[in-house]
Amino acid sequence: GTEPEQESALDGNPDAEFSSAKKLDEIIEGLEAHEIDPDTTDHTEVAMELRETKNTEEVLKLASERLYKLNARNLADALYQAARHSKRDAYQKEQLKNDRRYKMMKRTLLSQVSHLTGRHASRWLWVMATLYDVPDDRLLLALCRQMTYQCQYMHLSDFANALWSLSKIRVHPGNKVLDAFAQNILHSEKETQIRHCVQLLYAYASLEIRVPPPLLDFLLKSITTQLWTRQRFANQDLSLLMWALGAMFNNDSLRNNPALPSCLNAVNGAALRTDYPFKPKELINFMWGFSRLRIRPATQLLRECCVHADRVLPDLNAQQLASLLYTYRELSVDMGASFLSRIDDAVLSNLDSCDPVVLAGMLRSYIVLERERSSEEKVLRGITKQIAASLEDFDQESLAGTLTAYAHFDVCGRFDAPRELVREIAHLLTLANPQSLSEVNLVRMSFISISATHLNWPVEFPEELMEATKGYPYGKAAGRASGYLDEVTDAMTALGLQFDRDVQSSDGRFKFDIVLDRGSDGQLPIMFFTTRSFFFSMDPQETKPRLTGRNKALLKLLDAYGHEYVMIPAFDWKALYTMEERANYLSSKLETHGVFAQYTPTAGEHKKDG
Fold it and tell me: Is the pLDDT at 528 greater than 90, yes or no?
């Protein structure tokens, strides 16, 4: 006779546990009630066998044969290995999600979820994010809370896996979880790896969470050390790192962190040592990060990136092309006419797949990327045609940005936007609630309303909207330069000059830091540009920074409206220490505008400077 067949682990409905909302609620409630009992049974032999598997099928076969012998940790490891083998192939991932053995493992693990350790909970989170297979967002948050009670046993890779997974699924873990993770990361004694540090920065940036300054300092220093001490790095890590730093640029703790310049220098060196070229997406993210930080890569690296961008141009999609244009605009990259022509062709061939944000961004980038009139008109007409076709999908931000760009082009005499399109965009903007407009859009609306009068545009804005835009002139002062402005006004006083501060131009379009009274010759506005804001891109191998694209556009407008102006960059001003140096520097700047003043030291002033 034969032995009776044993009941298969795969009998029954593998989706039974997941189809029962009540059962899932009970499991989540149990986790939230802190019913956590990590299984510490040693199954080293099974874990080693799982690590030695070469493909997804081997993992599924091994796990299904021993399903009743596997504990929660083994099941999490099995799912983790199966997802790792198939993560790079969308078809394999879909097959895995629909596999009966995978569903059974998932069902069994869910029934044992309270026995997971912190490390294995993070691995299951990673599986759910990689396969986009999430039973319930509440389960993710319950797992995160479970992990906070075991943080001291977790490694940096576990924290990185958990937060990266949440960022991919777009679920905020809550401040309690983040605080617990941050404290334990700082006290982690295990050796850090650059990939895990980058994943943490990426997760914080993607979820738009402010990184605690001590943690940010720790991650930047760890990344810098590894970039200098190791010879080779994955291009993906460098690309994600620059994307994360660029996305977090509005974070003051990042901009002011003394470890940031050293980290960027290390990135420059590591990128020049890579053996393989960046993939198109990696290249775009890498350069975009530098452009957001307003810091130019090393000259050799920038040259290599531009050459490589030219090669991959046909492979870029619409969003990547918009990012490339933004990068060249903000870093003031010098492009030849032939390269610009190829970019134009690529843009025109991808217009059908552009969403409103991409279209508005491209249009604003072309304000700065000037060249031959006929070539410019061709691409601008193509973008305008696509904007008109998809106008109903535009949000307030895109509408205001688009109309501002058209005003730029029209004022500078470079492109006349169709008046019917201008009227339609303006009408859609009038429907917006003034209370819901961001400060950026209020500035844009202020400029649009005044420029419309100057250009005789057929648009009218309601009084309520115009009232909301008061105090938001286009090109207003930097704001962060107030300390330097006090020093500038002291120097002007020492030169015996008459002036006013924070003055709005007579036409209401612009706001200037200082306006000098020249008597019968009228007024001369002085604009103070600071390197710590959106005004200059820094190049470590050049003596002086370059103006970014948005400020080139601002100066073009000032010229078009006939305004004279004096620029005093902060990087120049900070190099002057005595009142005499500052006054003489200011005097030389004003001489080019026909203002002559001489500095005469007062009694006791030399002692003060000393």
Answer: no
| Phi/psi of residue 583, nearest 5 degrees | -65, -40
Residue corresponding to tokens 């009228």: 522
Candidates 392, 393, 384, 397; CA nearest to 443 is 397
523 close to 378: Cβ distance less than 8 angstroms: no
Model confidence at 476, in pLDDT bands (50, 70, 90)? low
pLDDT of residue 23: 56
CB 257 within 8 A of CB 251: no
The angle that helices 235-247 and 259-273 make with each other, rounded to 10 degrees, is: 150
Q: How far apart are CA 430 and CA 403, in angstroms?
A: 13
Strand 566-569, strand 546-547: pairing:
unpaired
Cα dist from 565 to 110, 376, 497, whole Å: 68, 28, 16
Judge contact between 162 and 147, C-beta under 8 A.
yes
42 to 35, 48, 72: CA distances (angstroms): 21, 12, 12
Q: From CA 8, how far away is CA 16, in angstroms rounded?
A: 16
> Are the C-beta atoms of residues 196 and 160 closer than 8 Å to each other?
yes
The closest of 106, 116, 126, 104 to 31, measured between CA atoms, is 116
User: 536: which strand partners?
Assistant: 547
**Residue in 526, 444, 459, 447 with CA at minimum distance from that of residue 492:** 526
Residue 511's DSSP bridge partners are 504
Looking at residue 521, its amino acid is: D
Reading the block at residue 205, the tokens are 């940036």
Show the DSSP H helices in 436-509 as ranges: 439-455, 463-469, 482-494
Please report which helix (H) or strand (E) contains residue 567, including its range.
strand 566-569
- Per residue in 376-413, pLDDT (tens digit) is 888 999 999 999 999 989 988 899 889 988 988 888 88
**pTM greater than 0.90 (yes/no):** no
Q: What is the three-state SS of 97-124?
A: HHCHHHHHHHHHHHHCHHHCCHHHHHHH
Cα 330 to chain center, whole Å? Answer: 14
- Whole-Å CA distances, 536 to 38, 303, 512, 533, 549: 54, 19, 18, 8, 9
Phi-psi region of 44 (alpha: psi -120 to 50; beta: other; left: phi over 0): alpha
Q: What pLDDT is stored for residue 427 in this prediction?
A: 87
Report the range of poorest mean pLDDT among 112-121, 483-492, 575-584.
483-492
Q: Tokens in use for 216?
A: 């940010």
